[in-house]
Design brief:
680 residues; alpha+beta; Rossmann fold; Isoleucyl-tRNA Synthetase, Domain 1; OB fold (Dihydrolipoamide Acetyltransferase, E2P); five-stranded antiparallel β-sheet; 42% helix; flat; metal-binding; MetRS_core; nucleotide-binding; methionine-tRNA ligase activity; NA-bd_OB-fold
């Protein structure tokens, strides 16, 4: 028997404020959290959704240093971008705050101090790298060196990105400070650790025995960690950006970001509800649900509960419905490689289409395994589902009512057996959608909501009111009354998923306030109620729009390849005298044409200052002949002639091969240069 709670606290993973939000974040955390919260609000339940930016930690200091600005400048920039894009996308936070707020600094500091005073931490002294010129201890990401596993000379102190191996800074060969480039020295430093091993028996029972209903991916990851045995985890580090450790004599030490960030949920709740925040965090009648991605499972199921348990007065999460990862066009989403669909850019490129992305990300949600977002699937789901099923039914029902009944809800007559079957079918949708939402199965819930539109389409197609209008208007009135009631049901069923479209539909139906309990009813719209003018809920997305987005990604991929391009190794040395034998000259292209029956070959007529010559070159896949006529090119003049497709080639045109395999003809920088000029 599931416990009934008085209220629900929904938290969403705090996005890291060193970049904007992308579709992976949305699919993993924010869209499902928003659906769940909107659903509970629609049911009239007491629910709050808490969010905010995570603004401390090393990556932010690294980005600030690289840009020559302060960490505060970085977090201000991205916090504002993230907050604005969430608002425009309809993620309905009750508060979206940040971990650089004064209230958070105080709360995180007090939380640490309470655990410190209770003796819940272990103090440990260890040797860590120190940069004597920069006069500071180095975080792992501030140390680079040679990976002992693969020999990559640019491995970080926590991981080698070439071979993926996790490292300790002391594992690196020839370590260097990323700040000064100098070799760091090992120095003694003291830190505080949360002894997770102390809480292991409690966590094992609480998760493995008491929460078998958690999603298999969450339960499995927790079991794996617990079976390996938990170790003490540092809660402080040497850094000048973060919440200062509230203990005397700890200058230059801050709370580790993993410790300070989840306290942001509490501080943001306190900022929202200064007088009653404890009701949501300390009353066992509150249900707490953490929405996160799979990379945060351990922190929210093991580490944060251990912190709360050590403090002693807080409730623990009832569920942590973490999603897996969303890939993009078959490749892992990556902020550093700019391989992502950024929310703020989507909102600019697709104005008014928030619900299309919400729909696609929910329909394709990575609930149990990693899933893939493709622009072709985005287009297909919009055109074949939102337009052809949901939008089509709503439009037909409203247009037919305006055509036959002056836009007023007609009186239903006697229902046929088929009508009653249809009513039963859509009455059952409420229980199905509800059951799926209560168990965090948002993809299945969306399918059920869309089934309601399918039922409506089938009902109109089977009853054909446009044909009956010639002979039986009372029957048409009954059919359209029922079709309109289904439409009103759609406005309620889709409110958690597609809030912008649901609001537009309610406007067209002139519906007053509605709640979840009305779902499944056949008397939502009263007889005689006047309807608004029918408008299209969704519009088709053309191929050209999708091609533009695919091309944007292809350009990103190309830029990444160029950035990571490594030149081919230099060939064996040749004697200087051999090189001097080459006669490289400048010639002007007088004529250029494709060689028949040869895909790769172009035939050039070159003005070489000596009466002209013919050269055949294999660059036809890279240039149109007409683009080269009139250009100056560099060519080898004293190469032994050879026949290609029956044409004698008297030299070689010089080209450079780009990182992506493209051949680029070498041309002199000066346009005015005499044909036959030697290249020295």
């Amino acid at each position: 028997m599931e416990k009934k709670f008085k209220r629900t606290l929904v938290t969403t993973a705090l996005p890291y404020a060193n970049g904007p939000v992308h579709i992976g974040h949305l699919a993993g955390v924010y869209v499902p959290a928003d659906i769940y919260t909107r659903y509970l609000r629609l049911k009239g339940e007491d629910v709050i959704m808490i969010g905010g930016s995570d603004e401390h930690g090393v990556p932010i200091t690294i980005k600030a240093k690289a840009e020559g600005v302060t960490p505060q400048d970085i977090v201000d920039r991205y916090h504002n971008i993230i907050k604005k894009s969430f608002e425009e996308f309809g993620i309905s936070f009750d508060i979206y705050s940040r971990t650089t707020s004064a209230i958070h600094t105080q709360m995180a500091s007090d939380f640490f101090r309470k655990l410190y005073d209770k003796g819940e931490f272990i103090e440990k002294t260890s040797m860590q790298y120190y940069d004597e010129d920069a006069n500071q201890f180095l975080a792992d990401r501030y140390i680079t060196g040679t990976c002992p596993h693969c020999g990559n000379e640019h491995a970080y102190g926590d991981q080698c990105e070439a071979c993926g191996t996790s490292l300790s800074a002391t594992d690196l060969i020839n370590p260097r400070s990323a700040i000064t480039g100098n070799k760091p020295v090992l120095r003694e430093t003291k830190h505080w650790y949360l002894p997770l091993d102390k809480w292991e028996p409690f966590l094992r029972h609480w998760i493995l025995d008491e929460h078998k209903e958690w999603k298999p991916n969450v339960y499995g990851q927790c079991k794996s960690w617990l079976d390996m045995g938990l170790q003490p985890r540092a809660v402080s580090r040497d850094l000048d950006w973060g919440v200062p450790v509230p203990v005397e004599g700890t200058e230059g030490k801050v709370l580790y970001v993993w410790f300070d960030a989840p306290i942001g949920y509490i501080s943001n709740t306190k900022e929202l509800l200064p007088d009653k925040w404890e009701l949501y965090w300390k009353d066992p009648e509150t249900k707490m649900v953490h929405f996160i991605g799979k990379d945060n499972i351990v922190f929210h199921c093991i580490v944060f509960p251990a912190m709360l348990k050590a403090e002693g007065s807080y409730i623990l999460p009832d569920n942590v419905p973490a999603n897996e990862f969303l890939n993009l066009e078959g490749d892992k989403i990556s902020t550093s490689r700019n391989w992502a669909v950024w929310l703020h850019e989507y909102l600019e490129d697709f104005p008014g289409k928030q619900d299309v992305l919400r729909y696609v990300l929910t329909a394709n949600a990575p609930e149990t395994k990693d899933n893939d977002f493709t622009w072709k699937d985005f287009q297909a789901r919009n055109n074949n589902e939102l337009v052809a099923i949901l939008g089509n039914f709503v439009n037909r029902a409203l247009v037919l009512t305006h055509k036959y009944f002056e836009g007023k809800v007609p009186q239903a007559g006697e229902f046929t057996d088929y009508d009653r079957e249809t009513m039963k079918e859509f009455a059952d949708v409420k229980a199905s959608v509800e059951n799926y939402l209560d168990h965090y199965r948002f993809r299945d819930a969306l399918k059920e909501a869309m089934n309601l539109a399918r039922i409506g389409n089938k009902y109109l197609a089977d009853t054909e009111p446009w044909k009956l209008a010639k002979t039986d208007m009372p029957r048409v009135a009954t059919i359209l009354n029922l079709a309109l009631q289904i439409t009103a049901n759609l406005a309620i069923a889709f409110e958690p998923f597609l809030p912008f479209s649901a609001e537009k539909l309610r406007g067209m139906l002139h519906m007053g306030p509605c709640d979840w309990n009305m779902l499944g009813r056949t008397d939502i719209l009263p007889v005689g109620a006047e309807l608004g003018k029918p408008e299209l809920l969704f519009e088709k997305i053309d191929d050209s729009v999708i091609e533009a987005q695919v091309n944007k990604l292809l350009e990103t991929k190309k830029a990444n390849e160029l950035k990571n391009h490594k030149a081919a190794p230099v060939r064996e040395n040749v004697p200087f005298d051999d090189f001097m034998k080459l006669d490289i000259r400048v010639g002007k292209v007088l004529d250029c044409q494709k060689v028949p029956k040869a895909d790769k070959l172009l035939q050039f007529r070159i003005d070489d200052g000596l009466g002209g010559r013919t050269i055949v070159s294999g660059i036809a896949k890279h240039y149109k002949p007409e683009d080269l006529i009139g250009k100056n090119v560099c060519f080898v003049a004293n190469l032994e002639p050879r026949k290609l497709k029956g044409i004698e080639s008297q030299g070689m045109i010089l080209s450079a091969e780009d990182a992506d395999g493209r051949l680029i003809v070498i041309t002199p920088a000066a346009d005015e240069i005499a044909p036959g000029s030697e290249v020295k």
